[in-house]
Known about the structure:
It is a single chain. By secondary structure, this protein is an alpha/beta fold. The model has no long low-confidence stretch (mean pLDDT 91). The chain has an 8-stranded antiparallel sheet, covered by helices on one side. Strands 5-6-7-8-12-13-14 form a 7-stranded antiparallel sheet. A 5-stranded parallel sheet has the order 17-16-18-19-20, with helices on both faces. Strand 12 (210-215) and strand 13 form a beta hairpin.
Amino acid sequence: MCGIIGYVGAQDAVPIIVDGLKKLEYRGYDSAGIAVYANDGFSVAKQEGRLNALETRLEEQPLFGHLGIGHTRWATHGEPSDVNSHPHIGSQNKIAIVHNGIIENYKQLKEYLERRGVSFASQTDSEVIAQLAEYYHRGNILDTVIKVTGRLEGSFALGIMCLDEPETLIAVKKDNPLIVGVSEHGNFIASDVPAILKHTNKVYYLNDKEITILRKDGVRFFDFDKEELQKTPETITWSFDSAEKGGYPHFMLKEIMEQPKIMRDTINNTSASVREAMNELDITQFNKIVITACGSAYNAGFVAKYVFERLCRFPVEVELASEFRYKDPIVDERTLVILVSQSGETADTIAAMREAKARGAHTLSIVNVVGSAIAKESDICFYTAAGPEIAVATTKAFSAQLVVLYILAIEFALRLGKLTADDSDKLTAEIALLPDKVETLLSQVDTIQKYAASCVGYKSIFFIGRNIDYAIAMEGSLKLKEISYIHSEAYAGGELKHGTISLIEEETLVVAIANCERLYPKIISNVEQVISRGAKVLLLSNFENAEQNDHQSHILLPPTVDLFSPSLSVIVLQLFSYYVAANKGADIDKPRNLAKSVTVE
Length: 601
């Protein structure tokens, strides 16, 4: 969840690293730091707080060097503080490191080193790596890194500098993302592409247990047996501008507005690749599907459950990836496990994938990042065309995941004989119309903004729906609580009378979603029940005859097949959450305690 960047080359490393940290601040932001090699030693600046605090310190105490590492921290071990910030340097001042991940056996290693006279400055698990490296170091940093990684249990992406090799940057990956970028003026390591895209679009993706040695004139790769590896760089096709705000006040709003294009590109890219992949996969060999994911990706999977079961008449389970591997899951060679992850590096989803594969299941992934761990390890992978998503709260990646899941469900149903070719074509045509309908909703942003302005004072906001509308209500509730810090819950409308309605009181806001024609009278009945207890209601539906009065406001959605209506409902839910948070003055792109890519348990 932390962000790493490193540079070695002909230019001053400090502005390059600081600029890269700005692009990685979504990964961690309770402190930041930088270390460069200069004047036969390390120069370090570390600062608790957001990155601008570090920038202020660097203005007052400038650093300079051609080799450096930087870090934005999301605290796991040790409170946010200057001393707990990265980079960490060993007590002999010979080795400096930045770390993303968790060292599970750090206490044992720390005690081992303390018995041998090593003194620790911080509370972090990461400092153990620097101290252990100095303890083992005998002159060759590659040998040192191999020995150290052999003692570490847990996950790590590391950037390392050593005084004995002042023109060398070394990095190593296990279970956490790390890329290598190459350019004419120098070479880079980073947790994510946006950090270095200003300088290069040529990157190498490190696999687990791979080490890279970077110097200004080239890069080399090794495995943990010190065998040199040959790797081929990949070219990033999206532009640097796509990782910039482009005049919007927040990345989240920009990414909401990008969704029509993202959906079109994903639909165009996915339709043919799904058909091609299904030619190699006999869907009839499976007796159930399990979708596993975390956060918003889980909600996308929950929506997909309704779509797959309705179209395919096939049992679908949706599991939180963080629970999947600990529940002794019932999966085997007749199970298809679908993994959904924006980053492709979500730690719990990676673990779920590996557990599923160990039990013989076939795995299919939907990710947004080429070269990510899930993309590489799953049996089949489909990429969304969302491009870089910088805001912590996902919007466009979620919408892209939905359309891929729709396309998969249609193709599965066709292969299973549950849909005729004609019905399949009709549903596919409906999906193709979704981007235009999203554009229509985005043109009504003023109406949503105006309504959201009246909702800042609510202490609790509830979301209700039935069937697939309940599934998307979960995403609406999550989005609101993520960025506005307003307590929010989502409930199936029929469950109100089973306890939930006790929470409804005067001036409670209930967001009701109603796009299923056969269930419309049911959800309207639930709406009347909460209104009679003093609630105000915001109704999202594609039925024009919905009432508007002092107790109920209505936002009309474009008509579509009810199975695909979540793609329209979610646009209003995203905008509603965004403008409620904006009116509260919240830090929308970097909500407190959250990070974009959850790479630790």
